[in-house]
Specification:
- It is a single chain.
- This protein has 286 residues and is mostly helical.
- The chain has two domains: 162 residues, no CATH class; 100 residues, no CATH class.
- Helices cover 53% and strands 9% of the residues.
- It is built from eleven helices and seven strands.
- A three-stranded antiparallel β-sheet has the order 1-2-3, with no helix packed on it. Strands 4-5 form a two-stranded antiparallel ribbon.
- Strand 2 and strand 3 form a beta hairpin.
- Helix 1 runs antiparallel to helix 2 and helix 9 packs across helix 11.
- The longest helix has 35 residues.
- The chain starts with a strand and ends in a 16-residue tail after the last strand.
- 26% of the residues are buried.
Length: 286
């Protein structure tokens, strides 16, 4: 596995590279807070039970025997608190494939540094290392300076915490690319729309869904696309549409043609971002 500052790249046995986004310090801290709240509930229940049993036993004896029972109960309580903390995190990660409740809520997961699923021993080491990580503040210090935010438990267990991949649904895979518009105003009615169909609409949509073009490239491509469309629409040479900047023409053409051919379909159209005018620098340009 090769490591970047915020990614982990895994090369599988089939020589296929997979990138994982490493969880940052802030996200892991938020997950730890959620886990800590749940752990406090378990520790409170254990404290109440052991305290009640110790008080009941001490009440039946007197003198040194009662003191010994209370002292023993205190040691037992401390041991139980440590055991509960370690086992709760170990079991939670083991049964969920590397996720505690807090990590699940924040979309995080523990994996091996080679990209595989960690085993029970690795989860136990990570959980046991919470003690020095918290008591000696080793965890926050190591996570702050380590490129992949790994704490002592991760270094001992050979693990790293990554962001879970968002599952790809059929709807997401087949959804059209978002269209970037500078204005949602379709403008005055354009003549000759009846001469255009789905093919022309898809061509304009493809152009409007391409971010990252330099202003000059975008303007040139818009002009090359607008020319044939104007001819196909049989617009007169003095028509106002021929005087519009090509990008403005294509945006208004898309809005009007989409409303005509696909009424009620506004999916994939992003709200217009702040824009300084047709001659300004498009907000999506690099």
């Amino acid at each position: 596995m090769s490591a970047g500052y915020d990614t982990q790249r895994v090369t599988t046995a089939d020589n296929v590279g997979i990138n994982f986004r490493v969880a940052g310090l802030a996200t892991r801290f938020a997950a730890a807070l959620l886990d800590g709240l749940l752990l406090l509930i378990l520790l409170f229940v254990a404290t109440v039970l052991i305290g009640a049993i110790a008080d009941a036993l001490a009440g039946t004896t007197t003198g040194n025997s009662a003191d010994e029972i209370l002292s023993l109960a205190g040691l037992l309580l401390a041991a139980c608190l440590v055991l509960i903390a370690i086992l709760s995190f170990t079991i939670a990660q083991a049964v969920s494939g590397g996720r505690t409740p807090g990590k699940a809520a924040m979309g995080l997961r523990v994996i091996r540094i080679d990209g595989g699923t960690a085993n029970l021993g690795a989860y136990f080491l990570r959980s046991a290392a919470y003690i020095p990580d918290l008591l000696l503040a080793l965890g926050p210090i190591l996570m702050f300076f380590h490129p992949q935010s790994r704490r002592l438990g991760d270094l001992l267990a050979g693990t790293v915490v990554v962001r879970e991949r968002t599952p790809v649904t059929l709807q997401a895979a087949t959804a059209p690319s978002p269209v970037y518009l500078r204005s949602s105003d379709p403008g005055p009615v354009i003549d000759g729309l009846g001469n255009l169909g789905e093919r022309e609409l898809n061509a304009v949509r493809t152009f409007l869904s391409r971010p990252g073009l330099l202003p000059g490239q975008r303007a040139e491509l818009a002009g090359r696309l607008a020319g044939p469309l104007l001819e196909r629409m049989h617009l007169a040479f003095g028509a106002p549409e021929r005087l519009w900047p090509p990008e403005l023409f294509l945006e208004r053409l898309y809005l009007q043609l989409a409303a005509r051919l696909q009424p009620g379909d506004g999916a994939g159209v992003l709200p217009p971002p702040p824009y300084g005018g047709i001659a300004g620098r498009p907000p999506w340009a690099p």
